[in-house]
Structures are given as C-alpha cells and as structure tokens.
Amino acid sequence: MSAEHQVTTSNRVWCGLAVSAALVWLAPVAHGQSASPARRSQVEAKAAGAVARTAWGDPDLQGTYTNSNESGIPMQRPAGLAGKRIEDITPAELVKLIQARREQQQRTALTIGGTADNDTGAGPSHWYENANATNSRAWMVSDPADGQIPALTKEAVARAAAVRASHRGGDGYYVGPFDGPEDLTLYVRCITRGLPGSMMPAIYGNSYQIVQGPGYVAIRYEMVHETRLIPLDNRPHLADNLHLYMGDPRGHWEGDTLVVETTNFLEKSAYGGASDRLKVTERFKPVRPGVVDWSITFDDSNTWVRPWTFGMQLTRNEAEPVF
Fold first, then answer.
1. SS3 at position 216
2. DSSP E strands: which ranges in 223-290?
3. Nearest CA to 225 among 253, 190, 256?
C-alpha cells in the first residue's frame, strides 16, 4: 500500500467518524422541530410560498434534493444557438431542446452496454435515474454572456500538459497505461468527485441532503458519500498550507440565499485543472417551494483569464432519500 493510499484511507475513516458525529449533532435539531408549533408555522409558510425559517431564524433549506432533471444540459452554449443569451430562450424553444436531448440519451443508452441491441452491461435506459429529464435551461454557463468558459491561461495549459505527461499520455480515467491506483482519477478511485463535481448530475447517485443546525449547514452527497460541513460564524479560512479534496467552505446568508465561499483546494481535486489558488462562490437561492437555484462562480487567475459562473436547479424530492 502506498503512502498516499494509507493517508487517504486514514483520512476517509476519520472524516467518516467526524461527519457521522456532525450529522448526529445536527439531526436532533432538525428532527426536533417536526412536532413543534414553530415547525408547523414553517410548513404553513412554505405552503403560502414564503421561505420557511428554522427555529433559530435562518432560511430553512433542509431536505433531500436531486439534480436528475438537469441531466443532459450542456455546460456551454451550443453552436446552433450562437448569438443568443440564456434568458432569450423561449419556453417553446426549451421544450424542443429537451426533446432532442432525450432522444439522444435514448440512442446513447443503447450503446453503453457495448452494442446497439445490448440490454446488459449498463442496462436499458429505463434503469437510469436521469432518464426523461425536464431541464430548467438551455445551457449552464451564465457568465460570460456568450455562454462559453473563458480561455485558459498559459500557466494552466502548461500545467495540464505536465499532468498528461505524468500519465504518459493517458487521461487517468479509462485510458492507461496505469502503474498503480494513483494513476487513476480520484473519482474512479471513489475518493471524491470534488467541487462542483459532487453537485453535478450523473447517470445515478444524484441525491443530496441538506441539514442545518445553529451556525452550520451540512450537505451530504449520495455519490461517493461525502459530507461538507459549512460553518456560518465568520471564522477565517484555514492557513494557506492546508488543502483539502473538497476545499475549506465558509458560509453566510444574503437575505434568503445561502452563500458559500470555498478555498484551500488540493490541486489534484480542483475543478477543470484549476490551481490550488482556486476560490469558488456558491449561491443556494430558493426560487419557489421545493426548488433551489444553485450557481457557482470560479475565480482563479492562474487558470482562467476571467472569473466565470454556471448553475442549475435542485429539486426537493423526499421520495428518493440518499442511499
């Protein structure tokens, strides 16, 4: 066993214990509200369309959410929609785009198992949690207005080339050669999907649970089963020499919107080949009962020539708990 693997295994055990303790601590607060008059008023507020409040006064985002309905949305504006802004897409145009994506998904599903007539391997398309998604938008990037991810810096291009050279031309995912597990990606090794990877839709495992307690928000992910514990007490970020797979989050409220700023990423888990100087800012904004608009802004001058933002919607679905 390599030193890295020993450290990773140890960290996952200790993180698992810490996360379990945190959720045990948070859960009684959430569950204890269910029978109280204060909690009943929150349910009534939700029914009236207002943003519910916790017993201690924070906006109440608690529940199990899924991103399955956002499956199939391209990250960047498709070439066929050149010249349009994301807000220019009409409901009728979005319906046509969604139908085309569903048809493409059906065609792709038939070949994932190996052949066009194969119902084994990955299984038929009706097995997939993300089948027949009802997308909220035409593409994900909202800033810049052209819907395109900004260009990489020269430093980022060189960094990506160095990573690829270390894999002898492979991608660390399915393309070898591999000398050991460390040559595979962190996701393939079930260590982390990183951030925002853990927020993104996949074929399965698209649920996450938001739990709140005074001064904290926790987000538990079904895929890889990580938990982010987000303090809301204005404490400073960790020292610059401490880096984590999911970064170091700090949250606060802007009205009813939860804003989470995360720094101190390990470079090996930073999104899109970003550097360890990456800062991301997420916004969880309730837009109607059971629906949260989530967006994330990337700021890393060592990687992109300007900051950029993308987003999607999270839909509450208590019928599909985190497995």
1. strand
2. 227-231, 248-254, 257-263, 279-288
3. 190
Report the predicted TM-score, pTM, of the whole model to 2 decimal places. Answer: 0.82
Token pair 């207002």: residue:
50
What is the pLDDT, as a whole number, of residue 177?
Answer: 81
What's the start-to-end Cα distance of the chain, in Å? 29
pLDDT of 4-28, one tens digit each? 443 333 343 334 444 444 444 454 4
Give the mean model confidence (pLDDT) for residues 272-284.
Answer: 97
On the CB side of 38, CA atoms within 13 Å amount to 12
Distance CA 120, CA 177 (A): 27
Rounded Cα gap, residues 66 and 129, in angstroms? 10
Q: Which of 312, 242, 299, 292 is nearest to 271 (CA)?
A: 299
The two structure tokens encoding residue 314? 């999270």
Helix then strand count (H, E) for the chain reads 4, 10
Q: How far is CA 172 from CA 184, 218, 242, 247, 268, in A?
A: 4, 30, 25, 22, 12
Distance CA 221, CA 109 (A): 25
Token digits for 196?
Answer: 């925002």
Cα dist from 155 to 114, 268, 271, 301, 307, whole Å: 39, 16, 15, 10, 16
pLDDT digit string, tens, across residues 103-115: 887 777 767 655 5
CA-CA distance, 229 to 250, in Å (whole number)?
A: 9
Residue linked to tokens 């960290």: 11
State both tokens at 28.
């009684």
